[in-house]
Design goal:
Elements: E1 8-13, H1 19-22, H2 27-30, E2 34-39, H3 41-49, E3 55-59, H4 60-65, E4 70-80, E5 87-91, E6 102-105, H5 111-124, E7 129-132, H6 137-143, E8 146-150, H7 151-158, E9 165-168, H8 169-177, E10 181-189, H9 190-195, H10 197-216, H11 219-229, H12 233-242, H13 249-264, E11 275-278, E12 281-284
Parallel strand pairs: 1-2, 6-7, 6-8
Antiparallel strand pairs: 3-10, 4-10, 5-8, 5-9, 11-12
Length: 287
């Protein structure tokens, strides 16, 4: 990367829940100033941490692990107040009866895995054994008493009644805490924000415009989701309508509570300050 030919490397998650941020993004207008890499959340989290990606949505937990290196974009997240429909625990027994159970976790997420651990440890006080498996419900339930699926894997599994109890972790978090939960946040590496403020500002504005256009008329997103993944138009309209892509004080408050619990339970090593990017400046969120 040089001042004469600045290039920003963008990460893109291949899950429907982030479609609105990218659907109308004008990639071609940035030319060779922007390189795009499509990956699952855990891969993108790792690439950001290693400096191979400069900007993009990452898991909220990954932000906390490297908060000293990142800034958060305001008005951009994947959040929910109550149901998410794509972060689902499938289980044979009620949550309060999972003591001693084995729970299969996917290898594709950090935020949701730790959200489940927080809920079970903090609110249900059950001790369970966790194993990691590929995100396939049949495989998970052959080896465990419960299986966690996220994203499109969870959506597809939810369309088929296999007799399991199903807990939406977004709804469970809100029921237990009364707060929002932000599962993905959009970040920029601090160094890149300092070195290329104008290009970063232009990318941010393009993200917001894509979000605005996507949510103003869901028809195209719904049609594409139905064509590529299946399901009904009604399902996808409700899905996109139910998620929030905002990231402001209400979302910050819920995320800070999640981080506090993660520190308390030893999932994070230190307290986390939310540092919010502003055009040519940074705002630090204080409680």
């Amino acid at each position: 990367m040089t001042p004469n030919n600045p290039t920003i490397r963008m990460g893109r998650i291949d899950f429907t829940n982030v479609w609105p941020l990218f659907y109308y993004f004008p990639f071609e207008s940035f030319g060779d100033q922007l390189e795009v890499f499509q990956q699952v959340p855990t891969q993108l989290n790792k690439a950001m941490a290693e400096g191979r990606i400069d900007i993009g949505p990452i898991s909220s937990f990954a932000y906390a692990e490297h908060a000293e290196d990142y800034l958060l974009f305001p008005h951009m997240s994947v959040s929910a107040f109550q149901h998410v429909h794509s972060l689902l625990l499938f289980h044979r027994k009620p949550l309060a009866e999972l003591e001693g159970s084995t729970i299969a976790l996917p290898t594709t997420s950090a935020t949701t895995v730790n959200l489940l651990k927080i809920i079970l440890a903090k609110y249900y006080r059950v001790n369970v054994h966790y194993v990691y498996e590929e995100p396939n419900l049949d495989t998970m339930m052959n080896k465990a008493d419960a299986g966690l699926l996220i994203g499109d894997h969870a959506i597809k599994a939810s369309w088929e009644d296999r007799g399991y109890l199903v807990t939406d972790l977004g709804a469970e978090w809100t029921r237990l805490t009364g707060h929002w939960m932000s599962f993905a946040v959009c970040t920029i590496r601090k160094q890149v924000a300092r070195e290329q403020p104008e290009l970063v500002a232009d990318i941010y504005k393009a993200f917001l415009e894509s979000k605005r256009k996507s949510l103003a008329d869901l028809t195209s997103l719904v049609n594409d989701a139905q064509r590529l993944i299946g399901g009904s138009r009604e399902y996808w309209h409700d899905y996109f309508s139910n998620l929030s892509y905002e990231f402001g004080p209400k979302q910050w408050e819920g995320l800070q509570l999640y981080y506090r619990y993660a520190v308390e339970l030893g999932f994070l090593k230190h307290e986390v300050q939310l540092q919010i990017w502003q055009d040519n400046s940074v705002a630090q969120v204080t409680e």
